[in-house]
Write a structure and sequence with these properties.
The protein has helices at about 15-25, 40-55, 70-80, 90-95, 100-120, 155-175, 195-205, 225-235, 270-285, 305-315, 320-335; strands at about 5-10, 30-35, 55-60, 80-85, 125-130, 175-180, 185, 210, 220, 220-225, 260-265, 270, 290. The strands form four sheets. A seven-stranded parallel beta sheet has the order 3-2-1-4-5-6-11, sandwiched between helices. It has a domain at about 5-185 and about 225-265 and about 305-315: NAD(P)-binding Rossmann-like Domain (Rossmann fold, 3-Layer(aba) Sandwich). The mean pLDDT is about 95. It has about 350 residues and is an alpha/beta fold. Helix content is about 40%, strand content about 15%. The longest helix has 22 residues, at about 100-120. The structure holds uridine-5'-diphosphate-glucuronic acid. The site of uridine-5'-diphosphate-glucuronic acid (UGA) has 20 residues, from helix 7 and strand 8. The site of uridine-5'-diphosphate-glucuronic acid has 20 residues, from helix 7 and strand 8.
Length: about 350
């Protein structure tokens, strides 16, 4: 067995795919999730069933990261050597409606994970940040070294806070920490609260697709397999306390802290209206398009610069959106039989 890896949010979209890959690779994986009902719990249970059926060393613990004593006990029991922290209250628009949920889950929950990593002497923490940290920035592509001081949703502020907290732990306790800013991740077993999934549901049920704004907003959609491959490669390369830094800048730790930040995005763009069109093609049905007010907290356009990532791990996201949406639609049709 390889190193023991803790994956938080293992019943979530990215956590499930990553935990499955690590288990298939022969690692010992501890998956943690609170299985909350922010979206259809049946989807989370089905992901978990697939994980527990995967041959190898997968163990599940139902745990809420807001339970700091429970998290400390879990770290003491399992003594993970590596941690991939993906659990969060996701959703940019959700954080506008329920700010307390975002902060309690994403900030307090992360603090418990950092404390667990410190106590157990974890050799590498990889944690999820978000493209939303670029906030009001209008210059695309977004570079990791760009200023990120103007978040426009509380969700983005919690993710930026995570990056700052991780830096502090890297600096104070030498915890090797790698933050990854995900760009609108999609694919089979995805999140039903996200645009592509909501649009697929509406198209298949013959209900109106709700487009916030004109439909010209742009997103860098990143396919799940590219995310998993990037995470696996990053996990194998904990940042060093010094050296290993071809391009020192804000993306690396100050004063030699073993800390790094990367974008993980495909590096392209599709409009929200274009996404509806792609889904129509792949689901073989016409959408009824309706337009609503833009949602506060949403940024207009995202696109990742991923050169740093490619140089560091010798890999960058490869699946173009038309191919990824075709794969998603195939899974969707198979699961929901519309
Ligand atoms: C997504 C995830 O939801 C976040 O958790 C993640 O942190 C973020 O990506 C990221 O990149 O880091 P977002 O890009 O807003 O956030 O993805 P969607 O929820 O799929 O929304 C994409 C676009 O579609 C937005 O412009 C949104 O306003 C629009 N939208 C969404 C609609 O027009 N209609 C809907 O019903 C839902």
């Amino acid at each position: 067995m390889g190193p023991k890896t803790l994956v938080t949010g293992a019943a979530g979209f990215i956590g499930f795919h990553l935990a499955r890959r690590l288990t298939e690779d022969g690692r010992s994986v501890v998956g943690v999730d609170n299985l909350n009902s922010y979206y259809d719990p049946a989807l989370k249970r089905d992901r978990l069933d697939l994980l527990t059926a995967t041959p190898g060393g997968f163990t599940f613990e139902r745990l809420d990261l807001r339970d700091s004593a429970g998290v400390a006990a879990m770290f003491r029991e399992h003594r993970p050597e590596e941690v991939v922290h993906l659990a969060a209250q996701p959703g940019i628009r959700e954080s506008v409606i329920n700010p307390r949920e975002s902060v309690e889950n994403n900030v307090n929950g992360f603090l418990s994970v950092l404390e667990g990593c410190r106590e157990s002497g974890v050799r590498h923490l990889v944690y999820a940040s978000s493209s939303s940290v670029y906030g009001a920035n209008t210059k695309v592509p977004f570079r990791v070294g760009d200023p990120v001081d103007h978040p426009i949703s509380l969700y983005a502020a919690t993710k930026r806070a995570n990056e700052l907290m991780a830096h502090t732990y890297s600096h104070l306790f030498g915890l090797p920490a790698t933050g990854v800013r995900f760009f609108t991740v999609y694919g089979p077993w995805g999140r039903p609260d996200m645009a592509y999934f909501r649009f697929a549901d509406a198209i298949c049920k013959g209900e109106p697709v709700q487009i916030y704004g004109t439909g010209e907003a742009l997103r860098d959609l990143t396919y799940i397999d590219d995310i998993v491959e990037s995470l696996v490669r990053l996990l194998a390369r904990p940042p060093q306390a010094d050296g290993d830094r071809p391009d020192p800048g804000p993306e690396t730790g100050a004063g030699g802290a073993p800390y790094r930040l990367f974008n993980i995005g495909f590096g392209g763009q599709i409009s929200v209206g274009g996404l509806v069109g792609l889904l129509e093609q792949n689901l073989g049905r016409k959408a009824i398009r309706t337009h609503q007010q833009e949602r506060p907290g949403d940024v207009f356009a995202t696109r990742a610069e991923v050169l740093d990532l490619e140089n560091y791990i010798g890999f960058g996201p490869q699946i173009p959106v038309d191919e990824g949406i075709a794969r998603f639609a195939e899974w969707y049709r198979e699961r929901y039989k519309p």
